[in-house]
């Protein structure tokens, strides 16, 4: 199976060189050119490995690394640090990176590091988020195709329901307030209220829970909001 690498790097020349080389080694490569975009793509859990530059526009590599780990994303991360920035290596590893390569690097060295990380995680990586899917109960969510199946049946979700479900899965285990869900899923749209969140939660429960009156996965956090317990 082709292994997927996410390259979060803002230097166009390096993106091109690395993409070409990794592709020629039979990896599937996707690139993100800033930290925000990279974080969003990496959170999908679709990738087997992340190459993460430290100096990035919009959100720095250290922040991206920390946020990914806080969200429970276990994909191996190799940080690309600037020459001589020994401190970078220490910080990166502390924040949950698995390895680092100092720029400018030899392509062969990088490839060896990539291989080593992929070998290390091939048997232990969480199948639940890879490749691009998440399973709870008899429900399977394919983030890549934006498709949800229950057993063998495709479940029709609205775009907002899917986005809400995805956000909850990405932050599973955490108590999520209605305001947070509203801001993250609907954005700053003044025409919607927290009641909208409740309506969509009810929709998701109806479609995905065995017993919507006693939900097993999309649970209520009294006085606050909801939590995904899948
Ligand atoms: Ca950079």
Structure in a nutshell:
It contains 8 helices and 12 strands.
Notes on the protein architecture:
By secondary structure, the chain is α/β, with parallel strands linked by helices. The chain has two domains: 122 residues, Rossmann fold (3-Layer(aba) Sandwich); 74 residues, Winged helix-like DNA-binding domain superfamily/Winged helix DNA-binding domain (Arc Repressor Mutant, subunit A), CATH 1.10.10. The protein has a five-stranded parallel beta sheet, with helices on both faces. A four-stranded antiparallel beta sheet has the order 6-7-8-9, with no helix packed on it. A three-stranded antiparallel beta sheet has the order 10-12-11. Strand 8 and strand 9 form a beta hairpin. Helix 6 packs across helix 7. The two termini are 27 Å apart. About 3% of the residues have low confidence.
Q: Any key phrases for this structure?
A:
five-stranded parallel beta sheet; 230 residues; binds calcium ion; four-stranded antiparallel beta sheet; 8 helices; Arc Repressor Mutant, subunit A; alpha/beta; Rossmann fold
Report the CATH architecture of the largest domain. 3-Layer(aba) Sandwich
Major β-sheet annotation? 5 strands, parallel
The CATH topology of the largest domain is given as Rossmann fold
**Poorly predicted runs of 5 or more residues:** 123-130
- Proportion of residues in β-strands: 15-25%
Mean pLDDT: 87
| Alpha-beta classification | alpha/beta
Helix content: 40-55%
The rough form would be described as: elongated
How many strands appear in the DSSP assignment?
A: 12
Classified in CATH, the superfamily of the largest domain is Response regulator
The number of helical elements comes to 8
CATH hierarchy class name of the largest domain: Alpha Beta
The small-molecule ligands in this entry are: calcium ion
Give me the side-by-side strand order of the main sheet: 2-1-3-4-5
| Domain count | 2
Order of helices and strands: EHEHEHEHEHEEEEHEHHEE
């Amino acid at each position: 199976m082709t292994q997927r690498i996410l390259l979060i790097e803002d230097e166009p020349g390096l993106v091109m060189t690395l993409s070409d080389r990794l592709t020629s080694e039979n990896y599937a490569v996707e690139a993100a050119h800033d930290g925000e975009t990279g974080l969003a793509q990496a959170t999908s859990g679709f990738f087997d490995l992340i190459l993460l530059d430290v100096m990035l526009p919009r959100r720095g590599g250290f922040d991206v690394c920390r946020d990914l780990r806080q969200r429970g994303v276990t994909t191996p991360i190799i940080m690309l640090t600037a020459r001589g920035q020994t401190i970078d290596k220490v910080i990166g590893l502390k924040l949950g990176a698995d390895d680092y390569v100092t720029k400018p690097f030899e392509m062969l060295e990088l490839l060896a590091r990539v291989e080593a990380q992929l070998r290390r995680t091939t048997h232990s990586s969480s199948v639940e988020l890879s490749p691009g899917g998440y399973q709870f109960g008899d429900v399977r969510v394919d983030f890549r195709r934006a498709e949800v199946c229950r057993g063998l049946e495709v479940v029709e979700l609205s775009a907002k329901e899917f986005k809400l479900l995805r956000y909850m899965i990405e932050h599973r285990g955490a108590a999520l307030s209605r305001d947070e869900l509203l801001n993250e899923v609907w954005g700053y749209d003044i025409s919607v209220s927290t009641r909208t969140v409740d309506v969509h939660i009810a929709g998701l429960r109806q479609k995905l829970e065995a017993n919507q009156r006693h939900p097993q996965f999309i649970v209520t956090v009294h006085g606050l909001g909801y939590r995904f317990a899948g």
